[in-house]
Write a structure and sequence with these properties.
Blueprint (H helix, E strand, L loop, with lengths): L3 H11 L10 E2 L7 H20 L5 H24 L13 H8 L4 E5 L5 E4 L1 H7 L10 H4 L4 H15 L4 E7 L3 H9 L11 H4 L4 E10 L8 E8 L1 H22 L4 E5 L5 E4 L1 H7 L13 H4 L4 H6 L8 E11 L5 E11 L9 E7 L1 H6 L5 H14 L3 E5 L5 E4 L1 H7 L22 H12 L8 E4 L7 E8 L15 E7 L1 H45 L7 H26 L7 E4 L1 H16 L3 E6 L7 E4 H18 L4 E10 L1 H6 L10 E8 L6 H4 L19 H11 L3 E7 L3 E9 L5 H8 L15 E5 L3 H12 L4 E5 L2 H10 L6 E5 L7 H12 L4 E5 L4 H4 L9 E4 L4 H17 L1
Parallel strand pairs: 18-20, 24-25, 24-26, 26-27, 27-28
Antiparallel strand pairs: 1-3, 2-3, 2-6, 4-5, 5-6, 7-8, 7-11, 9-10, 10-11, 12-13, 12-16, 14-15, 15-16, 17-19, 20-21, 21-23, 22-23
Helix pairs in contact: 2-3, 18-19, 18-26, 19-24, 20-21, 21-24, 27-28
Length: about 900
């Protein structure tokens, strides 16, 4: 039942008036009201007039008393006015327009002071809480105190206001606010006078609360403004919209066609349930953006979608036939209606694509029908890994498959799309041969040689293009296309790289064989020179005039032996003595030498990684690698600079990610040597590891420094790569395989060092020397005879076998060359072993030990002596071999 006031409000609302024109509480900001002040003045004047007319005896006394009271009141008013307790109301400060607006808003507004006393409350607030009189008005805190969730929100708002902040929140009440306010005040739930039943009855309601502090002139303390708004209708509207959205999503999810949406980068943000069912996707495992278009496409289908490029501000839809990939790897033939919007600034928006499953359509068609043939052709055309396109008479692309688009869009945002000239996408050097091949196809020729070409957008991409013409009967325009030639493009980049690598490997192998052969012959010569120098030195004292000359001969021979070792290092035939190395320790030992080699102009910075893995290599050769690279860096920095040597561990996954073709996936220790020198151009960079190649002036370099480094690294099982930029510097990255020490190696490393004592190198053994080089054989014979041994000699392996027969096998030791005419050393020993058993043998060679070890039978034990060797080295090796035989 409505009150008269409610009916009047409804009438005013229908006439466009404000619903609540007057506030329920509006206390003035300060001063006394003028009506009360006038009433007080009138009473005082009446009293004074009465006393003036009074004729009693005490009139003067009363009059004087009243005047004194008036004087005292005047003093009090003056003091109250001075401190601002009273004063005239400033009507000019009142903004009638703002006040009328606030009084008439539909939103409940209540203002409280610092002591939570209500200063102002508009009628809308009273209407919300069901109050018809000012005495029924309660603060927001009191009204919402009984509901725990609402009380918590109000508590946060109140704390924010106390700290000078504004805040808002939303609360849900189980009943209308008016009903809850009556229950809090202890009133009955029935309608009161001035209330409608709709105000106290109803279901759950939503309210929005806002609280903010503000200051008012004339009040020393800040006030708090609380706004209360019923937003139940808005909430209901939002819920209806959400339900409608859920219905729409459900309809889209279970539509008879698939649907997906993707961002410009290809990340998929939505896939409907129908498409997920076709592709066997579990959507609960994928968050938006985790799937990509390439995950759904078979082959290069993504490239087809990327060619749909509308102009800025437009939207384009393309029809594309291709295959999507199911989770089990099976193909699903589909037709896509792919829509791409582009903003006015050219930025592509999210794509929207409808997917039609053509599997059932194909099954329902006759296998020989033209429709089924068209579907099969589109599938094969877009799924083939070979790039195919049709051209018109001007060489413009008419139609292309996904592989073609992917290949020709490499390195270029625009790429080659229908209507573009294919010739313009090829490098200038490739165009004449391609244009000639296209013209032959247009003229009707069939024997057209393939064209080698490369792309303008990626000059490192090499192509082989096959061109064929279309018969006159097939040249009729179809669907607006004028297809007169068909091209087939195969990428040859990998094959070209392998061919170049193979050719380089063959060239390096040939040079290495030549260098190894030269080194082997030089070692024989140097063995004779060094050996006979040692024999001469045994007969000449240091005071002899010839002693200095003999030493000079030996020193130059040793220098030549060093050059020969570099040649053998490149050919990977030098003798190595691998051991477990701690790279930081090795670099520390050679750091002083590197600083001296760099000189004063350049600085050295060694950056060591923690917990570096060990490697297995020859310690001396490892130092040779570092020294050679240091000398190379010094020469590249004539004006000074900085050489940085850094180490780090590289696991198998990181090694594979580097993309080096030769680098097998494994754990490596990386040694990086970087300088800030002049750098090298590309043509020089290709030849730096070849022997005798040098950029230095004639006479200032042998050209064997980097080739030696290359050979040592390769023979140690490692890899070396060089990066260089002219004017910026050069970096060599060396990859040594990680070595996991065995138990024996760990025990050997922890064992105390043994004290080496001078050995007696004399003896009386019977020794057979087999050597085809006369000087080496003569030196070995004289050297061993000088140590008391009986020496028998042979020139070839066959003579060695015959000599053993003459001696009836009574030989204590064999010293044999490896490479000999007619029969080499390993073959000779294999034959002798069948007749005489395991006779101790020492193989001497200018090549590495493993170069011939594989030619020996399994289980054969032998000593190895590297050429060139000295008299002492020969005598020591013979003594150790004989001692080993006696101890067995």
């Amino acid at each position: 039942m409505s009150t008269k006031a409610d009916k009047q409000n409804k009438t005013k609302l229908s006439q466009g008036a404000v619903p609540y024109p007057r506030p329920m509480i509006d206390k003035p900001s300060g001063g006394l009201r003028i009506s009360r002040f006038a009433l007080l003045a009138f009473v005082l004047v009446a009293v004074i007039a009465y006393l003036t007319l009074y004729s009693g005896g005490d009139r003067n006394t009363l009059l004087l008393g009243m005047l004194g009271v008036l004087a005292m009141l005047g003093v009090v008013f003056l003091l109250a006015g001075a401190i601002g307790f009273i004063g005239p109301v400033d009507r000019s400060a009142t903004n009638d327009f703002a006040k009328a607006f606030i009084d008439g808003v539909n939103e409940g507004l209540v203002v409280t002071d610092a002591d939570s006393r209500i200063v102002y409350a508009n009628s809308a607030y009273g209407h919300l809480i069901g109050a018809s009189q000012p005495k029924d008005i309660r603060t927001v805190e009191r009204i919402f105190s009984r509901d725990p969730e609402a009380a918590e929100v109000v508590y946060r708002l109140a704390n924010a206001v106390r700290t000078g902040q504004s805040m808002q929140g939303e609360v849900r009440l189980s009943a209308p606010l008016a009903q809850i306010a009556q229950e809090n005040s202890g009133q009955s739930s029935g309608p009161k006078s001035g209330q409608s039943s709709s105000q106290v009855k109803g279901g759950a309601r939503w309210y929005r609360l806002r609280a903010r502090p503000f200051a008012l002139e004339g009040r020393p303390n800040k006030l708090s403004a609380w706004q209360v708004q019923d937003i139940t209708a808005d909430r209901n509207h939002q819920e209806r919209l959400f339900q409608n959205l859920q219905y729409a999503i459900d309809y889209l999810d279970h539509a008879p066609a698939g649907f997906f949406s993707a961002n410009a980068d290809g990340s998929i943000v939505y896939v409907n349930a129908t498409l997920a069912d076709w592709l066997q996707l579990d959507l609960t495992r994928f968050a938006p953006g985790q799937l990509n278009l390439r995950d759904l496409m078979i082959g290069d289908g993504e490239a087809l979608l990327s060619t749909v490029r509308p102009k800025p501000g437009e939207t384009r839809t393309a029809t594309i036939d291709l295959e999507l990939a199911r989770a089990d790897g099976m193909a699903v033939p589909v037709r896509l209606f792919h829509m791409v919007p582009v903003a006015s600034d050219g930025a592509p928006g999210a794509t929207r694509t409808i997917v039609l499953n053509r599997s059932e359509e194909i099954e329902g068609l006759d296998a020989g029908s033209s429709r089924a043939a068209e579907i099969r052709f589109n599938r094969f055309f877009n799924s083939t890994p070979i790039a195919i396109a049709s051209l018109d008479a001007d060489g413009a692309v008419q139609r292309s498959n996904a592989a073609f688009l992917k290949l020709f869009n490499r390195g270029n945002n625009d790429g080659v799309t229908p209507g573009d000239s294919l010739s313009s996408a090829l490098t200038e050097s490739s165009r004449p041969s391609f244009d000639a091949a296209l013209q032959r196809a247009l003229d009707g020729y069939s024997d057209i040689d393939p064209v080698e070409a490369s792309l303008v957008s990626d000059t490192d991409c090499y192509l082989r293009v096959y061109v064929s013409g279309v018969g006159a009967a097939d040249a009729e325009p179809e669907g607006g296309l004028n297809e007169l030639a068909i091209i087939y493009v195969v990428e040859m980049t990998e094959q070209r790289a392998l061919e170049e690598q193979f050719a380089k490997g063959q060239r390096m192998q040939a040079v290495g064989q030549l260098a190894g052969g030269i080194a082997h012959d030089f070692n024989n010569v140097l063995t004779g020179i060094i050996g006979f120098s040692d024999l001469l030195l045994t007969r000449h004292r240091a005071s002899d005039p010839s002693f200095t000359d003999i030493m000079a001969i030996k020193q130059n021979a040793n220098r030549a032996a060093g050059l020969v070792r570099q040649l053998l290092a490149f050919s990977r035939r030098q003798t190595l003595q691998p051991e477990v190395l701690n790279v930081p320790d090795q670099l520390e030992e050679v750091s002083m030498l590197m600083r001296r080699l760099l000189g004063e102009k350049a600085t050295l910075d060694i950056v060591q990684a923690r917990e570096l893995w060990p490697i297995k290599a020859d310690a001396g050769q490892f130092e040779q690698v570092v020294v050679n690279l240091t000398v190379n860096a010094r020469d590249a920095m004539p004006d000074g600079g900085k050489l940085t040597i850094a180490t780090r561990n590289l696991n198998e996954v990181e090694a594979q990610a580097l993309g080096h073709r030769e680098l097998a996936p494994a754990d490596y220790v990386v040694l990086s040597v970087s300088d800030t020198g002049t750098g090298m151009p590309a043509d020089v960079l290709e030849k730096i590891f070849e022997p005798f190649f040098s950029t230095k002036e004639v006479g200032k370099g042998t050209g064997l420094g980097l080739s030696t480094v290359y050979g040592i690294v390769k023979q140690s099982g490692g890899f070396i790569y060089c990066e260089s930029v002219e004017g910026e510097g050069t970096t060599f990255n060396i990859f040594f395989p990680r070595h996991i020490p065995t138990t024996e190696e760990i025990e050997e490393a922890e064992a105390p060092p043994t004290v080496v004592q001078e050995k007696d190198l004399t003896g009386n053994a019977s020794i057979l020397v087999v050597e085809d080089e006369d000087a080496v054989r003569a030196f070995a014979e004289r050297a061993l005879q000088s140590r008391g041994h009986t020496v028998h000699t042979a020139i070839t392996g066959l003579e060695g076998v015959e000599m053993m027969e003459e001696l009836d096998g009574k030989v204590d030791l064999i010293v044999s060359d490896v490479m000999m005419p007619e029969m080499d050393g390993p073959a000779m020993y294999a034959q002798l072993r069948e007749t005489y058993g395991d006779v101790p043998i020492i193989f001497a060679s200018g090549y590495a030990e493993d170069a011939f070890e594989r030619n020996l039978p399994d289980g054969v034990e032998f000593k190895f002596l590297a050429k060139p060797y000295t008299l002492k080295q020969l005598a020591t090796a013979v003594k150790e071999a004989l001692d080993t035989q006696r101890s067995v």
